[in-house]
Write a structure and sequence with these properties.
Length: 535
């Protein structure tokens, strides 16, 4: 086996520069609990050498580390210990359910800290990823299958990477990698119950603000147009939207009905009798299940079998990044508006709706579903901060997300005009009102375990979408170089049907990541419809 050109030089655990004065135990929110099983939330930022930062200068990473410890003072729970709540811990709570509810303990001498890895790569950045200029010109379609995202993220296990493993494991791992050319990579990886994509990028911008103090020798931190945003870590504030009542004998049927009317999957991880059920699902679920004798007497909410036979996990998957220029996205939106069905009335669609519609049509065509009458799904990750009333601020720390879906027959999702699909996306999103989301949180609070139900799937009949649009990922400038990142990769497992959208600062461009089974990807890239709106 060829040795990796990326080698770890140092590993340490770091802690807040201003540690908490006492030990605190905080129960994470109901929505945080529902995503504990998800893959970590992470990203890699790659930067070219600049006048301000040559990674061969030891002071560059020293400043980044110092700034990180300062930033952790505002995120002290990131250094803490994730674990599962016990029955004793929730006694007296308005919602005394404890199975599958994560807590974080921080401010003690036993805190695992944040792991910081310093690594060195013998390659030039140009051998790993195209430049910004290349991505905006001749490499707007870039096969990123060989992009070694794993080498730039520590392989240290995070707490809950297996649901039963958490003791002494960090909830956050960060790696700094220097390249031969003087460029560098900065990666952040968090247990998903601690952070969604927006929280991740807010943390990156907070770290950037502290870092700029050291690189610019300035006295006032500035980011986000000159302002830093103080994080708000208060999971119970989100749970209050469920309006739970103490000593409630049975859940309110009207609220449950409203929640379950939302277009959301209810795939059961515990359904061992489901066709194609994989062995790994049992071991990963056991820790969040009641004892067998108790489970036999528990009334579980309605669910369906996950469609395991439609997902070939052994099939090779290709990863492609597609850079759609702003004018191409505008053409998609105009085409969508022009082809909206009359049944949608005055429905408006966004640039993102239109881009997702275009990609989904292409994927279903590549899957050769033009004559298929069975359902296919676009599963969409939705942040709820702005959907609540009153809304939670963007600075709200955690992972307040859920997943809805758009359903069509394979035939319709392959052949319908872009407006019909974009309109359906917007119509589906409009169902997630404040009242409906609150009802969903209420329903989730009554689940035996938040990890039992999965709201999405992968494989040949699903597309799972994550949007980082407006998260300002490309604008994170850790070393005050005055330049955008060379490349930002939202790190997710490469699985059939995963799609991610990132916007490129204020250019109006979208960089869309698509992962598909290899033969499907070949058809996807050869489809002339891919470039019908330009790139």
């Amino acid at each position: 086996m060829t040795a990796s050109p990326c080698r770890v030089r140092r590993t340490k655990r770091i802690f807040p520069a201003r540690p908490p004065k006492k030990t605190t135990t905080t129960k994470l929110s109901i929505l945080d609990a529902s995503v504990t099983r998800f893959a970590p939330c992470g990203a890699v930022w790659l930067y070219d050498q600049s006048d301000n930062a040559n990674a061969h200068d030891p002071s560059v990473f020293q400043r980044l580390e110092e700034a990180l410890t300062q930033t952790l003072s505002n995120y002290p729970h990131y250094s803490g210990q994730l674990r599962w709540a016990s029955k004793e811990f929730v006694q007296g709570d308005v919602n005394p359910r404890f199975l599958g509810r994560p807590i974080v303990v921080y401010g003690s001498e036993e805190d695992p800290g944040v792991e910081l890895v310093i690594a060195e790569d013998s390659r030039e950045l140009s051998a790993i990823v195209p430049s910004r200029e290349e991505r905006s010109t001749e490499k707007r379609i870039w096969n990123a299958t060989d992009f070694p995202q794993g080498e730039f993220q520590s392989n240290t296990k995070l707490a809950f990477s297996k649901l039963g493993e958490y003791e002494d494991l960090p909830g956050v791992v960060i790696q700094l990698t220097r390249f031969k050319c003087g460029g560098y990579a900065i990666s952040i990886k968090l247990a998903h119950c601690l952070s969604d994509a927006l929280c991740l990028t807010q943390f990156a911008h907070a770290w950037e603000a502290q870092s700029r103090l050291l690189f610019e020798k300035s006295s006032v931190p500035h980011t986000n147009g000159g302002k830093t945003i103080a994080p708000l870590f208060n999971p119970s504030q989100l749970d209050k939207y469920a309006n739970l009542t103490a000593n409630e004998k049975r859940p309110n049927p009207e609220r449950i009905k409203k929640a379950r009317a939302l277009p959301m999957h209810r795939f059961d991880w515990w359904a061992t009798d489901a066709p194609g059920y994989p062995d790994f699902a049992t071991s990963s679920s056991r820790v969040t299940m009641p004892p067998t004798e108790e489970l036999a007497h528990v009334e579980l909410g309605p669910s369906t079998f996950p469609p395991w036979p439609t997902w070939d996990m052994a099939a090779p998957v290709e990863h492609v990044q597609i850079r759609f220029k702003a004018d191409s996205i505008s053409k998609m939106k105009k085409a969508a508006e022009a082809s909206l069905p009359g049944s949608l009335g005055d429905q408006r669609v966004s640039r993102l709706d239109s881009a997702l519609a275009h990609i989904w049509i292409l994927i279903n065509r590549a899957r050769q579903l033009e004559n298929d009458q069975d359902p296919v799904y676009m599963d969409i990750t939705l942040g709820v901060r702005g959907r609540l009333d009153p809304p939670l601020p963007d600075a709200f720390v955690g992972s307040p997300i859920l997943l809805g879906h758009v359903a069509k027959t394979g035939s319709e999702a392959s052949t319908a005009p872009i407006g019909a699909i974009a309109g359906s996306i917007r119509q589906t999103m409009s169902l997630f009102t404040s009242d409906a989301v609150s009802a969903y949180i209420y329903d989730a609070a009554h689940e035996v375990s938040p990890q039992r139900l999965w709201q999405a799937f992968l494989g040949s009949r699903h597309m799972l979408v994550t949007s980082w649009v407006r998260a300002r990922a490309y604008e994170v400038d850790f070393c005050a170089s005055g330049q955008l990142a060379r490349y930002v990769q939202g790190v997710m497992p490469r699985m059939d049907g995963l799609v991610q959208v990132i916007d490129i600062a204020d250019t109006g461009d979208f960089d869309i990541s698509v992962c598909l089974e290899k033969e499907t990807m070949e058809r996807f890239l050869q489809d002339p419809m891919l470039k019908v709106y330009g790139l």
